[in-house]
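haha ok so turns out i had the wrong file open the whole time. this is the CORRECT one, sorry everyone. sequence first:
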Amino acid sequence: MPGWFKGMEQILQERQLWRDGLLAQCTGFKCQPGRTDCCCRRILFSQPDFVNQKSALSELVATSGISTPKYHCELNFIEMYWGAAKFRYRTTAKTSNIDEMEQNVKTCLDDVPLVQIIRYANRAARFISAYAQGLTGADLIWVNKPYRGHRILPPRMIAEVKASIAQFLVQK
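then structure:
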């Protein structure tokens, strides 16, 4: 029945990998190192179709046409958004109920205001622009602090920073 969850036992039986007495998962999710057949979870996680499956978020981003560089978190506004959501999640009440946890995560993701997400996207665009113009590390952070209002850093500001760096290096 399409759309219905089968369960690990059913999936393993269909693949002729099921054996009697197999645990759903090892105690505390701690499988023995190097074993791929100790529990249902480990057997499924070692199957090629499970290994090659992208996360739902990765698939959503890939199909939406959003391009995100994967070099560093400061270049990817989704990482900043996820960080803000995790910060909110840490302040929620502790629970051991999986349904409550899932609801808490969804609520925390929804609680990040759209304007904040847009600011993250703009900040990432400024970093990308500055990297493309040759700035690195601390200089980039310094330039980004006073210039927050636009998507890119003006060439005048980049030239000014490069000149002051060159002057500093000559003095040393």
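The longest helix spans residues 114-132.
again sry for the mixup
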